[in-house]
Amino acid sequence: SISRRNTNLEMTTKYKIVLIRHGESVYNEKSLFCGWHDAELSQTGIQEAVYGGQLLKKGGYTFDIAFTSVL
Questions:
Q1: How far apart are the C-alpha atoms of 9 and 71, rounded to whole Å?
Q2: How many domains does the chain have?
Q3: Mind listing the pLDDT tens digit for each residue in 11-61?
Q4: Has residue 34 been placed in a domain?
Q5: Rounded to an integer, what is the distance from CA 50 to the centroid of its chain?
Q6: Which pLDDT band, with edges at 50, 70 and 90, does 3 fall under?
Q7: Would 70 be classed as within a structural domain?
Q8: Helix or strand or coil: residue 55?
Q9: pLDDT higher for 31 or 66?
């Protein structure tokens, strides 16, 4: 059985979930649906990805675990 002490600890632990979408792809740029094709990022998408990384760094984010898609 779980002790009351452990239960209280679990209830007060705070977690942050950060969701990040990829930057604009060349298919997005052309309004094409890519399905399971791993389209390259457009120049705008590359800039968006770099900017997103800078924002995470500036915000002091650190991560214990990360999940990605297969694409």
A1: 37
A2: 1
A3: 677 888 999 888 888 988 888 887 777 888 999 999 999 999 999 999 999
A4: yes
A5: 13
A6: low
A7: no
A8: helix
A9: 66
**Residues with Cβ within 8 Å of residue 45, at least 6 apart in sequence:** 22, 23, 24, 25, 26, 28, 29
Q: Domain residues for 19?
A: 15-58
Residue-level pLDDT at 7: 59
How crowded is residue 62: how many other Cβ atoms within 10 Å of its Cβ? 6
| H-assigned helices in the chain | 4-12, 26-29, 43-58
Binding residues for substrate: 21-28
- Establish if 31 belongs to a structural domain: yes
Predicted local confidence at residue 44, as pLDDT: 95
| Token pair of 7 as six digits | 């239960």
Q: What letter represents residue 27's amino acid?
A: Y
Q: Residue 71 falls within a domain, yes or no?
A: no
Feature table: binding site? 21-28
